[in-house]
Design goal:
By secondary structure, the chain is an alpha/beta fold. Helix content is about 15%, strand content about 30%.
């Protein structure tokens, strides 16, 4: 069985743990976090310490990992920190068994696709993305690296979502729309026109509300 480490121990880590267990093809080594703060989510797993305390483990070619952190920016920080130790570290891609994933689509390393998701033909999911519960991405979508959807997001065809974007819970995106890098779409919005980068959009239809600074808390 493939050996895997979970990075992070917040609430989202329990979701990732459940997917790993249900896939039945991984041997869980333990979890890495900045401190042994977990009280409920990963209590059955061994705490391995911080990233910098696990150089030997992270350089072991038999070990792989997944970042179980919901925030796009923090996922990026964790991946960058691991790559400083081993830039060839193996990141696993996880799909819940209930996911409907067309065989003409693709998904990058380190991405997680959660319960009830539908991804239709010729769509491309980047690396270290998160597609949350019951989201539906239609044909020919692109979700670039370190981006994510909240639960219940729906997109039309030919939608391009850039890097570090977050599409809020219950939002819908019309076909042929481009959302540029580092843009946040507020919950239950309807996006019917292209969105600038580094921006916050919200509403029905979604309107630009303000600039958005990379790294700002959105969850």
């Amino acid at each position: 069985m493939k050996k895997i480490i979970i990075f992070g121990s917040g609430d989202y880590s329990e979701v990732v743990l459940k997917i790993i267990i249900e896939n039945k093809s991984y041997n869980l080594v333990g979890y890495i976090d900045i401190e042994n703060k977990n009280t409920k989510n990963l209590k059955q797993l061994k705490y391995l310490g911080k990233i910098e305390q696990n150089k030997s483990l992270l350089n072991n070619s038999d070990i792989s990992g997944i970042v179980a952190i919901g925030c796009n920016y923090i996922r990026k920080e964790v991946v960058d920190e691991v790559h400083k130790i081993n830039n060839k570290f193996i990141w696993r891609t996880l799909k819940h068994p209930s996911v409907s994933f067309c065989d003409t689509s693709s998904v990058g390393e380190g991405s997680v696709i959660v319960t009830g998701v539908v991804i239709n033909g010729r769509s491309k999911i980047g690396s270290h993305c998160l597609i949350n519960t019951n989201s539906s991405l239609n044909h020919d979508n692109i979700l670039d690296d370190f981006s994510s959807t909240g639960p219940g997001v729906n997109t039309g065809g030919n939608v391009l979502i850039g890097k570090y974007c977050y599409i809020g819970i219950g939002s819908s995106i019309k076909h042929n729309i481009t959302i540029k890098n580092n843009t946040i779409i507020g919950a239950q919005s309807y996006v019917n026109s292209d969105c600038e980068g580094n921006s916050l959009y919200y509403g029905i239809p979604a309107k630009r509300v303000s600039d958005w600074i990379y790294g700002k808390k959105y969850l």
